[in-house]
């Protein structure tokens, strides 16, 4: 019934102890994060067209196919272009193939890449390239034309539509992948949930529920590796026998808990068309109902095997493109329900094939809106006889919630517009907190929103809402409990907390003075959170949608969140997306020939051998490493006088340091005053005496202001051939300067024909010497010297 009519009929009669007060403002992490990296994946902003159409009256969602095609070609070039390369392989010759065919249908890839790269070997760009390009266009036209691009665009658009539908509604985890298995005593139990980057590991975590304390996990969880991602986990206890059923995409399995409370596999089966729903029978132990995308409904038990009871590939009420199906039991052991997006139908397994009756249909009978579809249908098997009749079924759509009685099909007994922003994929009927005529119903949205309803329907009266719905805190409300972080780490934490919810489980703590409730949540990232709820003592708020009373964080809660965050930061991030490599046709096309000639296949062979033997790849298998040069030693820098003075002053020895400095200055060697540089002629750097050996490096340089001619030192008698020979002058002089030196020595006014002992130089020699010395002190005019050769390098 509608909320307005229910209020007139007394449906919203508010009783005490209806509002649940959370112990914390938000859920707390239960287990440390997994070591597997997790990526948030695509968002709506990644797929939508950022621009907008002008003059459009009604806004419409537009997928940006052009940008996605460009990203696909860039990020997945091997997928986009590899099929084209295989189709064109027979018409192209790779480098190193050794083929010398002259067929006109075969094109050399190396020359073609040179042509496309602008290679012009013959000056004219079209002299010899037109023929090869024409052959390439003829061969590649049918393959590289618009047909391939259009086909790729169609496939990509189909993939975008599927991704967009998954963003709006991810039906894979309908029903929940988190379950609570009670233990030997009420204080102990096990949480069963998937883990791992692909959700392909089934974990069994033992948990202890202490009265008045937070739940604690015991030890490490047990693990079972599966062949596919876990989508649904269902547990049930019938006649003292506890079973666990798990659904994957194409497999289903059932376990039984024995006396040691360890799971033992009973049977596993493969579903070729893909399983969409699994349910445990509340009447017979070991019996399950399974439905697939082909529209088949089967009864399955380890003793009797698989039995198909219904199959219809078409939808129940009207045509819908979705292949989703759902199966559940009813109050009768031999009557099942099968549902799709258009309605729910009851099937009699003992009747003729196709015998059944519609329980719910999307249409005028239920006052459904346009575009409304069924998201979840569930039999309320845990209803208390004092609160609700045992024949009620829950039907959830993206807009409303319906309660339908199988004794009165097609007409819902209760309709409530839940108003959640995300679709409802999780629902669980909880036991009453205390003996009363009100039973809570917990709803979970895909984005993590939780809503709590209170149902009542004692006697023969129709079920109704006994109070306003209550919104419980979500995981994003726990963000203030974490410490302040850097923007990048803060964004990572927010994305982790906003991960979609894929599992929901509730437990009533035993032996507690006040009734309470523990709600466990499982995110798609593999994180398990919990929150404790207790009934509020006095509830007089009758607003249509009231939130839970606010609580405060305790130091213990913030410490636990900080510890969980530290473990999260140690988890490696997801690997980056594959980037397109850069190709070089010289290395790419000639790789076959290079490997054949140089034997470069040795290392891959060693790698394959090591992988086949299952051993580590050692360094000796790869060869010796190149010798690395040691880093250069740091050069000692000049003494820092200021740092030394400040250090001594800081230590209180500033005066002593100043005295040592002054003593060092006074006692040190005095520096000779520097003489000013004088520009001299080139001839002044050489000696005018043939008795002085210029190659002797120990002789002091001659001063421009030398002694007079008579005071020149004398040397013993030498032969004219030993005075100024070219060999004597050439000692110690570079080869490129020897010719310049010879030319210069030829211009000097030296007398090579001096006979006998050279005691006193003749008057001509003395006059020439004086003339030469006078030219050293007076500037020489350009016309006073004979023409000289052009000076070479260095002079």
From TrEMBL:
Taking every annotated instance into account, which residue ranges of this chain make up the domain TAF1C helical bundle?
491-690
The Low complexity compositionally biased stretches are 760-771
Can you tell which superkingdom this protein's organism belongs to?
A: Eukaryota
- Bias (Polar residues): 716-725
Task: Outline the extent of the TAF1C beta-propeller domain.
Answer: 245-381
Compositional bias (Basic residues) spans?
671-680
Q: Which GO terms describe its molecular function?
A: RNA polymerase I core promoter sequence-specific DNA binding
**Pro residues: bias regions:** 628-637
Domain TAF1C C-terminal per the UniProt entry, residue ranges: 715-795
Any one GO cellular component localisation term in the record: fibrillar center
Where are the residues of the annotated region Disordered? Answer: 536-555, 624-643, 660-795
Gene3D superfamilies in the record, alphabetically?
A: YVTN repeat-like/Quinoprotein amine dehydrogenase
Q: Where is the composition biased (Basic and acidic residues)?
A: 735-745
Q: Record's Pfam families? A: TAF1C_beta-prop, TAF1C_C, TAF1C_HB
* PANTHER family on file: TATA BOX-BINDING PROTEIN ASSOCIATED FACTOR RNA POLYMERASE I SUBUNIT C, TATA BOX-BINDING PROTEIN-ASSOCIATED FACTOR RNA POLYMERASE I SUBUNIT C
The protein's name: TATA-box binding protein associated factor, RNA polymerase I subunit C
High-level lineage: Eukaryota, Metazoa, Chordata, Craniata, Vertebrata
Q: Which gene encodes it?
A: TAF1C
